[in-house]
Specification:
It is a single chain. The chain has helices spanning about 15-20, 30-40, 90-95, 130, 140-145, 155-165, 185-195, 215-230, 240-245, 280-295, and strands at about 50-55, 65-75, 80-85, 105-110, 115, 120-125, 200-205, 235, 250-255, 260-265. It has about 300 residues and is α/β, with parallel strands linked by helices. Strands 6-7-8-3-9-10 form a 6-stranded mixed β-sheet, with helices on both faces. The protein has a 4-stranded antiparallel β-sheet with strand order 2-1-4-5, covered by helices on one side. Helix 9 packs across helix 10.
Length: about 300
């Protein structure tokens, strides 16, 4: 059965600061001070800002530029999907954003701070859950892995694990091993492990490509639920155009070689999203056709 998910109201960092406490009883001088301080802060940067990013492997005559001059943003609380032809450089882009590969030119930043290594506020979920889970550890111990270096009190540690397992529907499977679970359940373990870390940004590389269609629908709805329940900003690479349209607030379409941003498509589908009713909308078909036509258009 499909589950509907509402889009959260987007709130910038400044709006949270401006309304952090009651101001009804402050005098005009106080209000002026607040306004002046707010102006001094300047524009609130996007949660994730990619500006003119390029990645070249090698140097000299044999150098190969994979992505070139990519520019787009991801705002707080958005789900943005990146689509493009196979081999266009989507995974390379994610590795640059995750701080795993240095960029050759341009920049990527979180809240205005340049990414020059793996950001503490980011977690990754990869396509190949078989290689990311430790088969000799139980589900619970797999989820605990990224928390080891945080030195959390035992109560908080267990609470994080319990909350993450409950969020992905695996509370009853905590004592099982990954090899005892279906592919979809194993990917839920990988997602739970990321959730337990409490990231502000979740990056997912083809996270549902290795499961059957029904399980894929369930995991897509889980992704929406995670965003709603945890307030995360989520960036997803996918080859599935229908999935991108269903999940996204916006879709970044890559094309050409080296890869460039062909367009950033706003997905104006009503909320809450539902696997049956949302996909039956004329707007869904129109958005899908728009994205697909750009991907299939000859370079």
């Amino acid at each position: 059965m499909s589950t509907a998910h509402a889009r959260p109201t987007k709130t910038t960092h400044r709006s949270r600061r401006a309304h952090a406490g009651p101001i009804d009883h402050r005098d005009e001088t106080d209000m002026t001070d607040i306004t002046m301080k707010d102006q001094q802060l300047g524009p609130v940067p996007p949660r994730l800002d990619v500006a003119g990013l390029s990645k070249t492997y090698g140097s000299g005559p044999g150098a190969k530029t994979v992505i070139e001059d990519l520019t787009f943003t991801v705002e707080t609380g958005e789900i943005v999907c990146i689509v493009g032809p196979s081999g266009v450089g989507k995974t390379t882009l994610l590795k640059c954003l995750a701080g795993l590969h240095p960029v050759s030119s341009g920049a990527a930043a979180i809240d205005g701070r340049p990414i020059d290594g793996p950001p503490a506020e980011m977690a990754l979920v990869f396509q190949d859950y078989n290689r990311s889970l430790m088969p000799w550890l139980t589900v619970r111990k797999n989820v605990r892995l990224p928390l080891r270096h945080l030195r959390l009190p035992a109560v908080e540690l267990n609470q994080r694990i319990d909350t993450a397992l409950e969020a992905v529907g695996l509370t009853q499977a905590a004592a099982q091993y990954p090899w005892q679970l279906s592919g979809g359940m194993q990917q839920r373990v990988a997602i739970a492990r990321a959730l337990a870390y409490r990231p502000e940004i979740l990056i997912m590389d083809e996270p549902f490509a290795s499961v059957d269609a029904q399980t894929r629908f369930e995991l897509e709805d889980l992704c929406l639920k995670i965003r709603d329940d945890f307030g995360m900003t989520i960036l997803v690479v996918t080859h599935d155009i229908d999935e991108a349209v269903y999940l996204s607030d916006r879709v970044v379409v890559l094309g050409a070689k080296p890869a460039r941003v062909l367009d950033v498509v706003d997905i104006n589908l009503p909320s809450p999203r539902d696997q049956i009713s949302s996909r039956a909308l004329n707007g869904f078909a129109e958005q899908r056709t728009k994205v697909l036509s750009m991907i299939r258009k000859p370079a």
